[in-house]
Specification:
It is found in: Cytoplasm. InterPro entries: HPr, HPr-like, HPr-like_sf, PTS_HPr_His_P_site. Keywords: Cytoplasm, Phosphotransferase system. One of its GO terms (cellular component) is cytoplasm. The chain is of the alpha+beta class. It has a single domain (2-83), classed as HPr-like (Histidine-containing Protein, Chain: A), CATH 3.30.1340. Helices cover 38% and strands 20% of the residues. It has 3 helices and 4 strands; from the N terminus they run βαββαβα. Strands 1-4-2-3 form a 4-stranded antiparallel sheet, with helices on one face. 32% of the residues are buried.
Length: 88
């Protein structure tokens, strides 16, 4: 299983627009991706509701994990997305 950490850059955290953009990118990847905060259970990164319920705020570090072909590249791309202010 590939994993990657990322720091949330969006000022509102993973809510509304940033969560929707992120989950769409996960869906487009074709992989089953999970996201979690330290010490928390991972949630389905393709679900807007689960991602928003995670409660990740600006500056929080999250862990992404996935299995499958190109998982490392997919996680790198998703991490870059999270490290970009998606509200700008």
């Amino acid at each position: 299983m590939a994993t990657r950490t990322a720091k949330i850059a969006s000022a509102v955290g993973l809510h509304a627009r940033p969560a929707a953009l992120f989950t769409q990118a996960v869906e487009d990847s074709g992989l089953d991706v999970e996201i979690s905060l330290p010490g928390e259970e991972p949630v389905d990164a393709a679900s807007v509701l689960e991602v928003m319920t995670l409660g990740a705020q600006c500056g929080d570090e999250v862990t992404l994990s996935a299995e499958g072909e190109n998982a490392e590249q997919v996680l790198e791309s998703l991490a870059h997305l999270l490290e970009t202010d998606l509200d700008a």
